[in-house]
Design a protein that fits this description.
By secondary structure, the protein is α+β, with helices and mostly antiparallel strands. 42% of the residues lie in helices and 19% in strands. The strands form four sheets. It has a seven-stranded antiparallel beta sheet. It has a five-stranded mixed beta sheet with strand order 10-9-8-11-14, with helices on both faces. Strands 12-13 form a two-stranded antiparallel sheet. Strand 15 and strand 16 form a beta hairpin. The structure holds zinc ion. Zinc ion binds next to loops.
Length: 401
Amino acid sequence: MRAYKFLLRPTVRQEQALAEMLRDHCSLYNGALQERRDAYRHTSKTTVRYGDQSAQLKEIRAFDPERQGRWSFSSQQATLRRLDRAFTAFFRRVKAGLAPGYPRFKGTGHFDTVTFPKDGDGCRWDSTPHDRQTRVRLQGVGHVRVHRHRPVRGRVKTISVKREGRRWYVVLACDDVPAEPLPATGSTVGIDMGVTHFLTTSDGEHMENPRFLETMAKELATAQQHLSTFPRRTRRRTKKHRAAARKVATIHAKIRRQRLDHHHKRANELIRDHDVIAHENLNTAGMTKRPAAKPDPERPGGFLTNGAAAKAGLNRSILNAGWGMFLGILAQKAESAARRVIPVDAHNTSRTCPDCGHVAKENRLTQADFKCTACGFTANADHVGALNVLSRAGLVLCDGV
Ligand SMILES: [Zn+2]
């Protein structure tokens, strides 16, 4: 499976229809959620299922031909299925003893995707390989121009339409995508994902964090500051309030696009140069969780420092670096290029001496420096991490796993 995302170039009238399509799918979603809520609360905890709601779709469409009847039946089913998935996830977490939030109603501004489960059903991808003038036909919207910046390989399975800020995109999920293997290089590399550097390879090469993030972070802070001067909950937002909110959203979208671009470039470099790429198995969910408060035995009601502030700073960098997303992109590119990606155990990779194997917290002098207390081996700390990842990958490869 591979996803392609292309910018749409709708006409003014088509853009209006797209917005209406989102609005009406949103109200279908919320209406179906309301029904499930009511049934759960009042009718002695009976559950409404996807099948029940899908069966009503015909009547809903007949009842409201203006707002529901004009859209694709299948895309509406997909929206109901999306609600069903939200409920399945909710009940699974309840069962696991967690405290999940009940599925929420979506505001029209927060419902941004409509999915067509099958090409040719309510939508049609209309493209010839050498023709740049690609269009996608969407029921109720029309024949929308697509900026297809690269060729689509494989067979188009599902088509989604997505709104991001003021832009519209079409996302294709394709299968049977032919692999395009790259020539073998005979090289295996370990990578260490860090805060100072985006990542460091076992060859000692640093790939830097993207610079733009700093500039954008400042811009974002200013825009958020401005937005916070408006009241949080109002019946009707003023024009200025809406503009301030849009500014924040635009900056977020820009950061997302630029970061993604950075990830693609770095992943391409690694894939091009190495046959096997090993990385630490990151538990980002655990790393970004807030540390638990430690009560102070000396002072009742007081708390010991738990490094929460330092960790908050680190959390921010982790989230900014978006490692999870990067590894996803890397794995996907590796698969289509017939390269291998190996996750290895991250335990003590920053404390182990790559030369003699001595493990000690004291080996790590500072954030940047490593000096083995047993044999005196010194190196950049991130480089050490990458070397340890590489040697662990070697063990994995020897075991033939
Ligand atoms: Zn050593």
